[in-house]
Amino acid sequence: MRKHLITLDDLSKEQIISILEQGKAFKEILSRPIKKIPTLRGKTIGLLFFEPSTRTKLSFELAAKRMSADIVNFSASTSSLKKNESIKDTVMTLDAMKIDIYVVRHPSPGVPYIIADHIKGSVINAGDGAHSHPTQAILDLYTMWERFGSIKGLNVTIVGDVKYSRVVRSDISGLLKMGANITLCTPKTLLPRYVIDSRVRHTFDMKKAVKDADVIMGLRMQKERQDSGIIPDEVEYNHFFGLKSHLLEHASKDVMIMHPGPINRGIEIDGEVADSKNSVINEQVTNGLATRMSIFYHFVEN
User: Fold this and answer.
1) Helix, strand, coil percent values for the chain (each to nearest 5)
2) What pLDDT score does 225 carry?
């Protein structure tokens, strides 16, 4: 394992597989009456969240607690950043407290790199702007791997706001490493140049996008990052690009429905699809806890 996990490019295919395999063991531990293990006893985890988060922050915090780590919760709203202190000086102060692993979320792309340059510990990127979200991609890969046994050859369709999603960038990187077939479906205004890759198919027709798909992943409309006028309105977007139940008839019989959350019902995904037997959206949350425990484990053991 490298010192930092800022993008999925920091991991080889073999390292990803190792994290997935260890994640299975941690998921089993989470099903026990007593869920706590001593793996991170004596280690300190700093949770540096510079923007709101529910799933990711709670997942990392609980993963650290399950592994007996000490936790430092950093709040930007009550920190010296409000007094114009730089991020560099803030993290150097934290580093003087001997924090071992920093879990960082920030609205600006690249901030985890800046933090990594000024600390002695390790950085795990919990999402930076529209750039990267490697641990979400790992839990997504785990969810597919657990269900199908292998990711190689899977037909994975990703639908929604590709341009402003940090999740899709990491998912594409991981899925290509693992040998999946990827199809993107999004309006032209939400299709960025970076996905123009001969290995990634894209279409503007939902029926074509979901045809024979083993996995369909919906992406949230990132309203907080979008420019105005990207789509005419949400009703029209849902009509042409919303994930609806009748579309599943064109997918594989046991197609798996995924979404990184939070979901916007009636926009990128209809409620009956989100709540259907094909949906593993809540299971992704459980898998996120197991795989983040596995990521912590690999940082400590390697």
Assistant:
1) 45, 15, 40
2) 47
CA distance 167 to 210: 19
Query: Residue 246 to residues 53, 135, 224, 267, 277: CA-CA distances in angstroms?
Result: 33, 32, 30, 16, 14
Domain 134-280 has CATH 3.10.580.10: no
Grouping H, G, I as helix, E, B as strand and the rest as coil, residue 289 is helix
Indicate the domain borders of the chain: 8-132+285-301, 134-280
Within 10 Å of residue 3's Cβ, how many Cβ atoms? Answer: 12
**Residue 217, SS3 per DSSP:** strand
Residues of the chain with pLDDT under 70: 1-2, 76-84, 195-196, 222-232, 301-302
Instruction: Give the pairing of strands 155-159 and 181-185.
Output: parallel
- What is the pTM for the complete model shown? 0.93
Give the C-alpha distances (Å, rounded to integers) separating 280 from 17, 25, 73, 155: 21, 20, 30, 17
Other C-beta atoms closer than 10 Å to the C-beta of 120 total: 10
Predicted local confidence at residue 221, as pLDDT:
82
CATH superfamily of 8-132+285-301: Aspartate/ornithine carbamoyltransferase (3.40.50.1370)
Residues 5/125, Cβ–Cβ less than 8 Å = yes
Query: Would you give the DSSP letter of residue 253?
Result: T
Identical fold for domains 8-132+285-301 and 134-280, yes or no, is: yes
**Token match 């490298």: residue?**
2
